[in-house]
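Technical annex B. To support the medicinal chemistry partners, we prepared a structural model of the target in complex with 2-acetamido-2-deoxy-beta-D-glucopyranose, based solely on the information shown next.
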Amino acid sequence: MRATHGIFAALSASFSLSSAAACSKQALLLVSSYPFGATPEDTIPGGVTTLKLGNKGLEQVGDISSICGTHPSWQTLVGTDQYYCINENWDTGNGTFTSAKVNTDGTLAFMGNSSTPGGPVHIALFGEGKRAITSNFATSSLDVFDIENPAQLQSLDNKAFRPRADNQTIKSRPHQAVVDPTGGFVVVPDLSVDVLHIFSIDQTSLSLTESPAYSFENGTGPRHAAFLKSGDKTFLYVIAEKKNSILGFDVSYGTNSLTLSEKFNIRTDGSDDAPREGSSGAEITISPDNKFLTVSTRNETVLSYAPVGGGAKIPSDALHTFSIDAATGELTHVQAAPAGGSLPRHFSFSKDGSLVAVACGGENRVNVFQRDVATGMIGKAVGETVLTTQVNHVIFKE
Ligand SMILES: *[C@@H]1O[C@H](CO)[C@@H](O)[C@H](O)[C@H]1NC(C)=O
Ligand SMILES: *[C@@H]1O[C@H](CO)[C@@H](O)[C@H](O)[C@H]1NC(C)=O
Ligand SMILES: *[C@@H]1O[C@H](CO)[C@@H](O)[C@H](O)[C@H]1NC(C)=O
Ligand SMILES: *[C@@H]1O[C@H](CO)[C@@H](O)[C@H](O)[C@H]1NC(C)=O
Ligand SMILES: *[C@@H]1O[C@H](CO)[C@@H](O)[C@H](O)[C@H]1NC(C)=O
């Protein structure tokens, strides 16, 4: 009797806890933005905005931070509070790489910065967090930084990329650097030269050595990529901005070499339909449990979205989710969910995968949706807000 009663009490306690948790998910978000305004006079500079998700949805914490400059476009959080951002600065001169501490309320405290070549759009870390790579889109190169002391970021190396061999007027546009699961290689999708640049990482000196690149069909536009280690296999998924496709690869390794063999090339929406004129693939992310892959496509506004705050439905781009076959790496389309607005350049999952935050640049909207971890389905919005700046990137601070 006592034992039964004890179990019942424990069960009802956990039921009330979980239902309370479901309607009051707490989280902090960091959102980077470009400037926004119709004319130069009324343009609001970009920056980093902290948002708090609570009972009342999303609320801004403090002012827009300017420590990453006025055109921040990528953020990386290490652990709970070591933060890095880059100022893309578009093509108007050098960029900046900045490090900061995230305070417990989500606001940022400047630690250090360094100049980068123009137009950085991504930060990758390697060497157990001792090094960072900025992908300098506007100036066709990578920079490697020593970040062992985050207050003193030091540029160590620059790797420049050549224009297209078949048309020298088309410059290289490195969009991201992605470190493989062994930590021994980095691949760099080049949007306009249509290659993946491949480097090996010397584990002692942490220096990069370039290997022959992997070439895509002309006009593919590889933008971002994600590796997946599954058992003894490794897969790579690349999203193509121009062709609106997802390319899947088997990854194999030799001594100081990484080899890719293409397995499939599918549309970002999983269909056989031609992509909409003017649409472009954006972000590709594997869920924290490695079971699902989600992509965002910009300007393929096939869905609509009813804001939770009320008002008319708005046109929405889609987040497409695929389940991943752990043995083969094959993808099966499972859901087209509204991104909650247009131009979802970036989105991210919370650590446990139960929330998805989306930055919709078309309306300056940030949306947070619930996500069913078991099915991979993105559900209803638990927070939404419209900022005064053009949002481009959003991460959770947990
Ligand atoms: C680095 O930060 C300092 C202090 O906030 C700022 O004055 C300087 O302009 C920044 N450097 C660059 C290259 O943006
Ligand atoms: C811009 O970056 C380049 C390459 O890192 C560097 O040589 C140059 O000094 C920088 N210019 C400024 C004004 O910081
Ligand atoms: C090279 O690219 C430029 C810019 O896209 C284009 O205007 C030009 O026609 C191209 N030249 C050739 C020979 O394809
Ligand atoms: C590849 O596309 C570019 C334009 O993006 C063009 O200039 C070039 O001629 C094409 N090359 C081939 C081999 O089709
Ligand atoms: C979206 O696509 C349309 C063509 O369908 C194009 O006119 C428009 O410029 C595109 N918008 C953006 C932001 O890319």
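Notes passed to the chemistry partners:
The pocket of 2-acetamido-2-deoxy-beta-D-glucopyranose (ligand 1) is lined by residues 69, 96, 110, 113, 115 (CB under 6 Å).
The radius of gyration is 21 Å.
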